[in-house]
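Might I ask for a little of your time on a matter of protein folding? What I wish to show you is a protein chain and, alongside it, a tokenised description of its three-dimensional fold. I should value your view on which stretches of the chain appear to form regular backbone elements. You will find the record immediately after this paragraph:
***
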Amino acid sequence: MSEEESLLSFPCAFPIKVMGIHSQHFEASMVMIARKHAPNLGEGAVKSRPSKNGNYLAVTITIQAESREQLDNLYRELTAHSDVKMVL
């Protein structure tokens, strides 16, 4: 699908939810990856919520998406991380 056919209009605010093992460094690692692809990550762009039993952490990072390629590259790097279980 080309950018002309995309349902998104760039630039746009785009939330990405990453779920993974709840560890001391999980959120910081996800933010570090997001910053590589969206260096202008602003204050309040990151929200976290632990699972009911605290074994997992859901981190929502809202980036200013500039292109489909940027989002694809970010998704690829997030899903390659060993602690990540799912990226939405």
Notes: The radius of gyration is 13 Å. Residues 68-80 form the longest helix (13 residues).
